[in-house]
Amino acid sequence: MSEKKRIFSGIQPSGDLTLGSYMGAIKNWVALQDEYECLFCIVDMHAITVRQVPADLRRRSLSQLAQYIACGLDPEKNIMFIQSHVPQHAELGWVLGCYTQFGELSRMTQFKDKSAKHADNITSGLFTYPVLMAADILLYQADLVPVGEDQKQHVELCRDIAQRFNYVHGDTFTLPEPFIPKMGARIMSLGEPTNKMSKSDPDGCVFLMDKPEDIMRKFKRAVTDCDTEVRFDPKEKPGISNLLSIYCTATGKTLEQAQEEFAGQGYGVFKPAVGEAVVELLRPIREEAERLMKDKAYLEGIYQEGAQRAQYVANKTLRKVYKKVGFVAK
Ligand code: TRP
After folding, report:
1. pTM above 0.85?
2. Class for the domain spanning 210-290
3. Is 114 among the residues known to form the active site?
4. Looking at 27, 77, 112, 114, which residue is catalytic?
5. CA–CA separation, 321 vs 125, rounded Å?
6. pLDDT of 135-172, one tens digit each?
């Protein structure tokens, strides 16, 4: 095994990837791939905790892989795979569920939010979702888990479960840490800039695969304020501040440079300029992902090899766990 620290992260294919997923997650993953041993997963088993249209889920899972690669994740350097292809996730998930308290799961804020939103379909899968997530991480003995602020509680629960298991059965799992990148831009909705950009709000959200004209339209309509000054001030000017963050992340400019560039210009100049910057950022990603989507054999090769490499590591952990809990060896 290499000396590098190990990273595990994943995104649910429950919607198409957004500018928020790129700027908040994938862009950081790209920066980590040389320094760490990384596994990047398409967590389709998590996606079915709320109802999905099967054909859409299948298309998005494959398209997500194409987009990961188009964003610069190298399938040679990283293990990239689809969660349901590695049965050890479900198997370890069951065991860990027997080391997780009902009360702990009841306290998860994401469960509270999602069960309120899907009140007609609160499944046990939605409830035990954090256990499956713990299995994802612990199977690979990951040291670090890059996640957004909203997933920190799940990673902390994962640590608690691992610690409990280690306490009962002796050292088995590496205790993972949430890894929240300092510069991880938290991209907000263009329609409601106090909410995170979300795939469930298509108007406030830019998708990586959006066409230039759609991107421009969304930025021109972005909610701002009745002032005219392009100034970074998330409290007083959440809309403009979000657009400034997006502009800086897209162009690599600093906030100072951007504020100076648009001093005295007004929003009519600023908003389309942000749109243009995003169009240029996403153009090569979209074109490459479209090209890869036409090459199904290539994508298949990538996810099959990814699953094989993942299984090799996952299986080692699972065998150890099965032995420790007292299962008869096969
Ligand atoms: N729960 C994460 C989210 O909704 C996705 C996820 C599933 C994940 N398993 C993971 C993230 C393991 C990091 C590590 O964003």
Report:
1. yes
2. mainly alpha
3. yes
4. 114
5. 22
6. 999 999 999 999 988 899 999 999 999 999 999 999 99
